[in-house]
Write a structure and sequence with these properties.
Order of helices and strands: EEEEEEEEEE
Mean pLDDT: 97
Number of strands: 10
Radius of gyration: 13 Å
Distance between the termini: 40 Å
Strand order of the largest sheet: 2-10-9-4-5-6
Shape: globular
Length: about 110
């Protein structure tokens, strides 16, 4: 069955960096675009980054452009989210998702606080 497992969250000070990973299994990974999303309590989940297939460039939500970088490694069935210059408003639970599906990971908490 499809599984998505995120890791790499944690607590950092403003200006710090984190790298999230999401390992996928149970489907032909290189055929699917993948997405990173985040959610804070009482708000809807929002897309942060979209990673196409075939080496095309990733797309980003405006609040993270220039600070976050998303990538994929099809050999290891993994997507990554490099987050730099983190700010308190980036605090959220971060999820990965397979495109055109309701398959989500369990989420990883990112907290940015001084």
């Amino acid at each position: 069955q499809v599984q998505l497992v995120e890791s790499g969250g944690g607590s950092v000070q403003p200006g710090g960096s984190l790298r999230l990973s999401c390992v996928a299994s149970g489907f032909t990974f290189n055929r699917y675009p993948m997405g990173w999303y985040r959610q804070v309590p009482e708000k809807e989940r929002e897309m942060v980054a979209w990673i196409p297939t075939g080496g095309s460039s990733s797309d980003y939500a405006d609040p993270v452009k220039g600070r976050f970088s998303a990538s994929r490694d099809d050999d290891s069935n993994t997507i990554f989210l490099q987050m730099n210059n983190l700010q308190p408003e980036d605090t959220a639970v971060y999820y990965c998702r397979r495109s055109n599906s309701n398959y989500w990971g369990q989420g990883t908490q990112v907290t940015v606080s001084s």
